[in-house]
Amino acid sequence: MAENTEIEKPKKRRFYHNLKDAYTLVQRTYTWLGWAFLAVAVVVFGGSIALGVATGHWISYPISGLLLAALICLIFLTVLLNPALYAQIDGRPGAVGAVLSRQSKGWIVSDTPAVVTRDQDLVWRVIGRPGVVLISEGPAHRVTKLLEEERRRVKRLAPTVPIHLIQYGHEDGQIPLPKLAKQLRSYKKALTKQEVPAVDRRLAAIKPPTAGIPKGVDPNKVRVSKKSMYR
């Protein structure tokens, strides 16, 4: 008898699945989130019931209060989502890659770091209309040299393209994770939309440095699992 080779289709995700995931992520950082939602429900919904009874609108006011309470909780969850995510991945190798994956509009972002060292120092290369942005992960005394070496490699293949250097971290002169996206947006545009992919193709010829990488590690296959970072 022939085996059943039909592949089970993944379950379709509904909006409430995303809300549940967002709540779980935020609550992991802000453990008081459930109590805050409860307080909003008691104050807003309870107040609407009391107001409805007092004014004689004992149906419309409670319904409006319920919707308002849900809206306030949703806004609260949205505001806390990014800070919670940054707090959970801050300091972990690949944190910059996780943030860059959320900034894909107008940028060419690779899952693979341009530079990887045995100390887990990383350099990410991002290409957009402001030019090429090199972002490091690691202590300043180690990544400064890495950034300069990568800048020279990029300059050889794209001598007229602006190159911006960013050090992610908490030391003097470094940029913390929550401000990374803002820093990318602060650069002025220097390339056209057509030039961005052309620069990316030109820089694809750069071979990542192998010095300092443990034997058996292929820098072209070092990838950051965004799914594990968000969890």
TrEMBL record:
Regions crossing the membrane: 32-54, 66-86
Superkingdom of origin: Bacteria
Ranges where the record places region Disordered: 210-231
Keyword tags: Membrane, Transmembrane, Transmembrane helix
Keyword presence, Membrane: yes
Matches recorded under InterPro entries: DUF4191 (IPR025445)
Protein name: DUF4191 domain-containing protein
Source species: Boudabousia tangfeifanii
Record lineage: Bacteria, Bacillati, Actinomycetota, Actinomycetes, Actinomycetales
